[in-house]
Amino acid sequence: MSSYLVNETLAVVEQEIDQFLIDFPRDHPYVMALSLPSFRQQLKAKILSTIPNRHKVRTDEDLEFTSVHDYTGVIEERLVIEERILRTMPDMIDDFRYRVRQEDSGEIIDQDTQTNSHYLNTNWWVRVHTIIPCVTYYFGPFTDQKEASTAYPGYLEDLRAEKAIGIFADIKQDCPRNLTLVDSPADLKQDQQRLWKIYKKIYRQKSILENSYHKLLELLPGNYLIVDCHGKIQDANQNACRLLNTNRESLRGKPFIYYAPQQQISLLENHLENIVKDQSEWQVPYCWSMQLQSLSSISISVDIQATQKRDDNGEINGFYWLLNDITSLATINDQLYYESHHDSLTCLPNRRSLALFLENLHQNVHAGDNYGDQVFALLMLDLNKFKSINDRFGHLFGDKVLQRVAEVLLECVREGDQVARLSGDEFIIVLKSTQSGDDAKKCADRIHRLFSRPLTVEGIQLLVSTSIGVVISNYDQFDYERLIDYADTAMYEAKRNGNLFVVFDDTQPSANGKSHPSPIKNLSLEEGEGI
């Protein structure tokens, strides 16, 4: 049983044209023009190209149109078609009269005079042939080839939406007798032969690809893996085998997670879930970086670029992974990061690292429930009369003194606290958790006790003293720059007054409710170590 795709809107257009002519006498230009098959065909084509068309698949046993009066919205459709006829006819009549005058005056001259009259009535058309159903459609007319080319894709999409199979299309000048032509059995046989040739060609191409994709994989310069949707390795080229220190047979069927260190497994699982869940067409590869562990227990850093692998039905059945070895780059990046966050002379954290440490500390404490009760302290130190050491022994010797001072300061703090060098001979210590201000004072005491003994640098013993400014604060109103400013002020007050250290308490509110620095303990050099 044959099936046909029928344009039901065409029947409505033909009925409306007949209804339109009832109101005009036989000698009216509209009636005379529409008595010409080519003119009538052009009018129908113009109207159909400007309104939605209703198509329906029918069989040999049901070729009659369903009564359009029963179609929902037919009244609105008829009104639209009637309006298109009234608007289109005047322009077509004027164009027709102009062509006739040109032909009568001999202005249009064609070498083939027998086809001259036919050429006058031709326009540009989009001709589309479908194998199932076996029908040829004409869409148009268009004034030029460019206009037809612009509309061309839309007609193909419409037919694909109607589930048409085997679509072939071209653009040509023509004067079709009908807009829809049902092909003959001979045409149908020819279409079947054409489909069979296409099928054999695709089958051969698929076989060639399946037999040679291993060779193609080897020709790729990168480290390539083919991975299924469950993360199992289906295939790999020799570059990837060398990277993972194994062979192709060992890789096939093995989960890629086998090569991920324990701390990287959750990261890999998250990325696998993301790429499988995203069924859309990727415009760029999906990328991430991670550590891998080869069979020789060598840790390598890779940047993975995943692209989708689809089957004949367009469904995702795996992924192509390109593994870029960035181990050396990762090492360089780690080194650059370290250098940008540490002092090159003493290897202590610098000002940037200090700010990051305090910010992370603030965020971690805020994640708890009792952050308002926790207290921390900042101790800023400055070496007294350090300039005289540089002037007497030289800057290289002064640098060695600073390195020795850094070692002493590290002996004065607990694990988890931080010692940083801000600049020159200025250092800062962060006690990240203190019970009270007494912990900060005890740390300042330890520093003074250690510096009360001579430091030995290149065989020379030196007495180095410091001035310390202490700020005690909580995490309720955390402000890095403000705290550094308070510590700096306290340090210079200790230096100016000859004290061992000056403590500012930032946890006590003032009368207006705002925190303020207030000295709570000053120790002079004469007082020694008393608290």
From TrEMBL:
Start and end residues of each GGDEF domain: 374-506
InterPro entries to which the protein is assigned, alphabetical: DGC-Regulatory_Protein, DUF1816, GGDEF_dom, Nucleotide_cyclase, PAS, PAS-like_dom_sf, PAS_4, Rev_trsase/Diguanyl_cyclase
Domain PAS: 209-279
Record SMART domains: GGDEF (SM00267), PAS (SM00091)
Family matches, as Pfam families: DUF1816, GGDEF, PAS_4
Gene3D superfamilies per record: 3.30.70.270, PAS domain
Record CDD domains: GGDEF (cd01949), PAS (cd00130)
Region spans: Disordered: 509-531
Alphabetized SUPFAM superfamilies for the sequence: Nucleotide cyclase, PYP-like sensor domain (PAS domain)
Protein name: Diguanylate cyclase
Biological source species: Synechocystis salina LEGE 00031
